[in-house]
Write a structure and sequence with these properties.
The chain is built from 8 helices and 11 strands. The protein is an alpha/beta fold. It has a 5-stranded parallel beta sheet with strand order 2-1-6-5-7, sandwiched between helices. Helix 6 crosses helix 8 (about 245-255). The radius of gyration is 23 Å and the shape is elongated. The structure holds S-adenosylmethionine. S-adenosylmethionine binds near residues 121 and 148.
């Protein structure tokens, strides 16, 4: 997979040289290129912003500079054999759709992703408009309901979440299966390691039993319990057919029942 990140702070992305993403880059599983937007400026001061038309606070990133940058990055990928449908332009913005594990899974299947990191009050709206109209898939992504100073943190998040889904990046692919926000739709169960007793806190006996079926059941029950407590919105989305008798018993134990559309609180007044 190829990812191009365009930013006025290329050094910000240095963290992607570390850990599993760094290894994925070194081994060629991830072809990550970071570009300085100012390379496409044409004036002596390397200006990337201007005041907002219509007035108001702050500065807005210029469409002409972004246009040159994105055209060249897209052309580079096309030269390397990527077709128009193989490319997606990701524009981080607090007004975008919220980035989730589903988005990461989808992007992991896109051969070439370009991330355009905004700063100041953001990028002139015509940039997104222009590339959409030219047939490029453009996704405006938000990390959540808060405002950051720039899109670089979002680029780090997107690249890390996507890269770990590429085959070969995470050593044991099974570790991706049971994770929070995975296919099961549950948060992950609590995890423990040695020593079995620490400061008076003991690891649950079942985990030391060596009994795989019981451990699996215990973990699924804890995942259900934890999801009910912390993210009831996720529990409601579970398909009833994905829940066996033991799952239903675990749900009942935490005050939920399974209706025709999925789990609901047994006592709706308490929800
Ligand atoms: N004026 C913009 C607004 O109110 O929507 C906020 C601009 S913000 C200060 C500058 C840049 O930070 C944005 O262009 C975007 O790249 C990035 N950014 C800020 N918050 C973000 C979020 N929640 N998710 C993704 N990117 C974000």
């Amino acid at each position: 997979m190829r990812v191009d990140v365009v930013t006025i702070f290329p050094e910000y992305l240095a963290a992607l040289d570390l850990s599993l993403v760094g290894k994925a880059r070194a081994s060629g599983l991830l072809d990550l290129r970071v570009h300085d937007l100012r390379a496409w400026t044409t004036d002596r001061h390397r200006t990337v912003d201007d005041s907002p038309l219509g007035g108001g606070a702050g500065m807005v990133m210029r469409p002409d500079v972004w246009g040159l940058a994105v055209d060249e990055v897209l052309a580079g990928a096309a030269g390397a054999g990527a077709g128009a449908g193989d490319v997606e332009l990701v524009v981080p913005t607090p007004s975008g759709e919220v980035f989730t594990q589903r988005t990461a899974e989808r992007l992991a299947g896109v051969p070439h992703v370009v991330v355009a990191c905004g700063r100041y009050e953001g990028i002139d709206a015509r940039v997104v408009e222009h590339y959409r109209a030219s047939g490029v898939r453009v996704t405006e992504l938000s990390l959540g309901d808060y405002v950051l100073n720039g899109g670089e943190v979002a680029a780090l998040v997107v690249v890390e979440a996507v890269a770990r889904l590429l085959p070969g990046v995470v050593g044991n692919p099974h570790s991706l299966v049971e994770e929070s926000h995975g296919v099961a739709g549950l948060l992950e169960y609590p995890v423990y390691t040695r020593p079995p007793s620490w400061r008076g806190h003991d690891v649950p006996d079942v985990l030391l039993s060596g009994h795989h079926a019981r451990i699996e059941r215990w973990r699924r029950d804890r995942a259900i319990e934890r999801t009910a407590e912390r993210r009831p919105d996720l529990l409601r989305r579970l398909a009833p057919e994905a829940l066996d008798r033991a799952d239903r018993a675990a749900l009942e134990a935490v005050g939920w029942t399974v209706g025709p559309d999925g789990p609901v609180p047994a006592d709706p007044r308490g929800s």
